[in-house]
Design goal:
434 residues; Growth Hormone, Chain: A; 2 domains; globular; disordered C terminus; 0% strand; disordered N terminus; mainly alpha
Length: 434
């Protein structure tokens, strides 16, 4: 167990994988391109399943409980299995894990498609398929995030993470669900098979990656001690610990804000949006995130990281409060676009710091443990928002209560400010000194 002083020293002199992997730019660019292509096709397939699996569940059963159970199976691996899967990623050759994760997802969807074509699909089969897709999603996302600092230099991480974020927002958030819905209207089996085919293309794209073999750690412990290493690494790093807590506040807030906003936006006495305009608001929101993702590398060059993190934290809450005070389609669109931009900037900066500061040998389990901790309280969000709305008999007050929860995350900003120098890559720091 390291002391706080040792943890602070580790921050000032990061030992992350990116700092020990100094590949030439000529080599890193093709490898980054291969990873981004694989990531793009995998996210497009994810976007298909965002629509396909819930609609298929609704067609199979009219029970809200059973339909919700299918959705829960998709998310369960993040809450219960992510730390163990992170250990697996750390001990494995990452290219093989990326390909295996997509093979698992493709095979699962093909089996569901066969069940649909054969007329014997039921909720248990669909829930099992959703669970396997969820496991593959955890493995792939953790491994892709872990592989990135192994193929680009430390000072390129923000740029590479921005590109990944653009692809995720565009393909998983916008194009995938829309295209998946269109194909679903033509044929359910075709939509499932199309998703499987996209995962297969992602597998082929990953073949152009280098082997990305696991780095040796000082000791090879059992699975439980290895999982605990990920949690300990987060706790002993002051910035990682604070970032995780602040991310948890944001995830909890938005998880509760979204269902309440749906009620608020479709209430004829408030916003009064129909389903088309409600969907359009979210599409505009994604565009805001994409725009900032493209601009993020340049913005980070102009504005200190600590200022960007502070602005993301404070402005996010202000954006979420806008529709309550000015309930119009325009302000609702600005809300989603602005909040999406804040979340994107926060993620690009905090993920890049995590990739730089954590040794490659434990980065997979740290990534997985970080998400498990930050997202673990998300189911409480809708309950808190619903309780606040019921207590005040006002959906708007419920939204504002969640905004207060979001803004309270700013209480951690002084702790971030104390360690602001650790946010700057060593390459930039050395250049500034020269």
């Amino acid at each position: 167990m390291s002391s706080p002083e040792a943890a602070d020293a580790a921050e000032e002199q990061p030992t992350g994988s990116a700092t020990t992997t100094t590949q030439a730019v000529g080599k890193s660019k093709p490898h980054l391109r291969a990873l981004l292509i694989s990531f793009g096709f995998a996210n497009l397939a994810d976007g298909f399943t965002v629509v396909t699996l819930p609609l298929l569940a609704a067609q199979t059963s009219r029970s809200a409980l059973l339909v919700g159970a299918v959705a829960a199976c998709r998310m369960v691996p993040w809450a219960l299995m992510a730390p163990a899967l992170g250990v697996f990623a750390d001990r494995s050759e990452l290219r093989a894990v990326l390909q295996g994760a997509n093979l698992l997802r493709a095979s699962s969807l093909m089996l569901v498609a066969i069940a649909v074509a054969g007329g014997w699909l039921n909720i248990p089969i669909l829930a099992s398929g959703a669970l396997l897709v969820g496991i593959g999603e955890v493995l792939y996302d953790v491994s892709a995030q872990t592989a990135l600092p192994a193929i680009v230099s430390a000072d390129e991480l923000e740029s590479a993470n921005s590109k990944q974020t653009v692809l995720g927002e565009l393909l998983n958030g916008m194009i995938g669900p829309a295209l998946g819905g269109v194909i679903m209207a033509v044929s359910t089996s075709l939509s499932l098979l199309a998703s499987a085919a996209l995962y297969a293309i992602a597998i082929l794209a990953a073949m152009r990656l280098p082997p990305l073999a696991a780095e040796r750690s000082e000791s090879v412990a059992g699975y439980l001690p290895s999982m605990l290493e990920g949690f300990r690494a987060i706790w002993h790093n002051p910035l990682l610990r604070v970032f995780m807590l602040m991310t948890a506040f944001g995830a909890l807030t938005f998880a509760g804000w979204q269902p309440l906003f749906a009620l608020f936006a479709t209430d004829k006495d408030l916003l009064g949006l129909d389903s088309f305009h409600f969907g359009l608001v979210y599409s505009i929101g994604s565009l805001g995130g994409i725009a900032l993702s493209v601009a993020a590398p340049r913005v980070i060059q102009w504005i200190p990281r600590i200022h960007l993190l502070t602005a993301s934290q404070l402005l996010g809450g202000i954006f979420l409060a806008l529709p309550v005070f000015m309930p119009t389609f325009l302000t609702a669109s600005i809300t989603l676009a602005g909040y999406s931009a804040c979340v994107i900037m926060w993620n690009v900066l905090t993920v890049s710091y995590r990739q730089r500061s954590v040794p490659r040998s434990i980065l997979g389990r740290v990534n997985a443990s970080y998400r498990a901790l930050a997202w673990g309280l998300m189911p409480l969000g809708p309950l808190l928002g619903g309780a606040a709305s019921s207590a005040t008999d006002s959906t708007g007050n419920g939204l504002l209560a969640l905004v207060v929860l979001s803004v309270s995350g700013a209480l951690f900003l002084p702790a971030v400010y104390r360690h602001r120098h650790a946010l700057i890559p060593q390459v930039e720091e050395n250049h500034a000194r020269d």
